[in-house]
Amino acid sequence: MTGQRRRIDQALDPSFASDLDTLSIEELRARRELLDVLDTELSYYRRILHGRLDLLDFELRRRAGLEERSLIDALPEILADAPSGKTSNPLDKELSVDAPPRVGEGRRAIDKALGDDFLTHLPRISDNELAGIRDSLADTERTVSEQRRAVHDAYDVITGELTRRYREGLADADELLSAN
User: Fold this and answer.
1) Which residues contact 100 (CB under 8 A, 6 or more apart)?
2) pLDDT (tens digit, 9 = 90+) per residue, 20-62?
3) Which residue stretches of the chain are H helix?
4) If you ran DSSP here, which 8-state letter would residue 89 be given?
């Protein structure tokens, strides 16, 4: 299951969470640990994307005359820990988790989205360009969310197999406890 493929590609491969009864308990635990790491990583990406989307949404509202404050004045409120709820509508676009989008030279869309320095030149970006950046970030956020859902699904399947083995006496819980 290892090799040269990215961790997310491994975890999203249908074979990652299939034929689990043929795997050792150690391999199951290793896969579940990988999924834990991926969930943390994907959650982090989503939070960053949501923050950028919230900033862009505010700027678009400000430019439309719906906000009187400057972006700087509103920054503490924008970056507060309240989810925007504006980016995860599954009806906007159907996404496939089988092939995460790539952008030139093998870069992932998330790398491009997080590497974009649009915030440093926000005043010079036209409204249309700003809306395009926002749409691109929203697409990337939906992809990351889909990947995260798939990671959770695989985690549930693997955890189910581990639970089955403990319940049926095929694995020793005392061994697990003594290893920690």
Assistant:
1) 8, 9, 12, 108, 109, 110, 143, 147
2) 999 999 999 999 999 999 999 999 999 999 999 999 999 999 9
3) 7-12, 25-63, 71-78, 109-115, 127-167, 173-179
4) -
Residue 95 contacts residue 146 (beta carbons within 8 Å): yes
* Six-digit token string for 32: 């579940």
CB 110 within 8 A of CB 140: yes
Give per-residue pLDDT as tens, 97-135.
333 444 444 457 787 788 788 888 898 999 999 999 999
Is 11 domain-assigned?
Answer: no
| Residue 18 placed within a domain | no
In a domain, 20, yes or no: no
Q: Domain count of the chain? A: 1
Return d(Cα 45, Cα 130) in angstroms, integer: 20
C-alpha distances out from residue 88 to 59, 111, 116, 145, Å: 20, 19, 21, 8
Residue pair 26/158 in contact (Cβ under 8 Å)? The answer is no
Buried b (16+ CB within 10 A) or exposed e, 129-163: ebeebbebbbbbbbbbbbbbebbeebbebbeebbe
Distance CA 145, CA 151 (A): 10
pTM above 0.70, yes or no: yes
Which residue range(s) make up the domain with 159? 29-82+98-169
Measured N-to-C along each axis, helices 127-167 and 25-63 cross at an angle, to the nearest 10 degrees, of 160
